[in-house]
Write a structure and sequence with these properties.
The complex is a heterodimer of chains A (179) and B (123). Chain A has no helices and 6 strands. Helix content of chain A is 0%, strand content 15%. Chain A has a 3-stranded antiparallel beta sheet with strand order 3-4-5, with no helix packed on it. In chain A, strands 1-2 form a two-stranded parallel sheet. Chain A is elongated. By secondary structure, chain A is mostly beta strands. Chain B has 123 residues and is mainly beta. In chain B, the strands form 2 sheets. A 5-stranded mixed beta sheet of chain B has the order 1-8-7-3-4, with no helix packed on it. A 3-stranded antiparallel beta sheet of chain B has the order 2-6-5, with no helix packed on it. In chain B, strand 5 and strand 6 (70-75) form a beta hairpin. The N and C termini of chain B lie far apart (36 Å). Classes of the chains: A mainly beta (179), B mainly beta (123). Chains A and B meet through strand 5 and strand 6 of A and strand 1, strand 2 and strand 8 of B. Strand 6 of chain A pairs parallel with strand 2 (15-23) of chain B, so a sheet runs across the interface.
Chain lengths: 179, 123
Amino acid sequence: MAVTRLGYEGYGVRRAGSFAGKGSAPPGGPHPVPNITRLSPDGYFTRRDGSFAGKTTTSGGGGAGAHPVGTITRLGEAGYGVRRYGANAFAGKSSGTPSGGPHPVSRVTRLGLDGYGVKRNGAFSGKSVTASIVAGYGSLLAFWTGVGAGNLPDAPSIITRARLSGLRRTISLTGEVDE
Amino acid sequence: MTANNQDFDIYNDDDWEIIFTVVDNAGAAINLSGCTEITWWLYDGRRNIKLTKLKTTGGIDFVTSGTDGKIRVNGTAADFDLGLAGVMEGDFFHGAQGVDATGAPFTFVAGSRVLLKVRAAGD
């Protein structure tokens, strides 16, 4: 099996017990995952205690304990899209409904920032944002598109000046034509 | 000769209008009522046109009927708003030209300076 990169102690790695270098089906003890493209810091999609590595996404029925995800495209920071602590599930259990213990999500495409489209405690993924967001940037007004139930506004379409004097100035000049 | 000393300044957050009285070399008002087009430009020091007002699109109209040589260039603060690029400010120039009933162009202002000022607190 291939481990492309290993994390630091405690980060995606089980401190006690051997894990590396084992074959695909050695008996006993923790095993590395078939393919880890990147390991996250401690506590981020990682369970510090208990075995987690080496189990495949299809081994959900393997009883208690954590299982690695199949695909993580990007890892979030602490508290952002990730539940750091908790006795049970922390982020979107996989559809395979493996028994017991926390399970990572099967696929995380993008993790939001804290408070925006993310519920820190409890389930968060898959829920839409219904609250509109009003953002102020100094003297600028931002008009957001896509605001509405289930839509997360993503970009300002028009930014214009908020401050106009409301005054009207008349300038009287003379033009002269050569004849 | 064509007027070239018709400088003015304006705050770029003000709406505005310029009233021109167009005269001949002797100072007599010119009848502009037959003009098919009148154009006013604001341009920068590199002669890049930044703003254009046309009679045919309503940006310029006669104060009365044009027989008295008076025209009005209409503008708002939005004319100086460049959106994401910011707001026009600083030194510019303006000029104006008409086209008479025979199709002959005539220039009555050229190369006069315009200062677009940013309003500070208390202005």
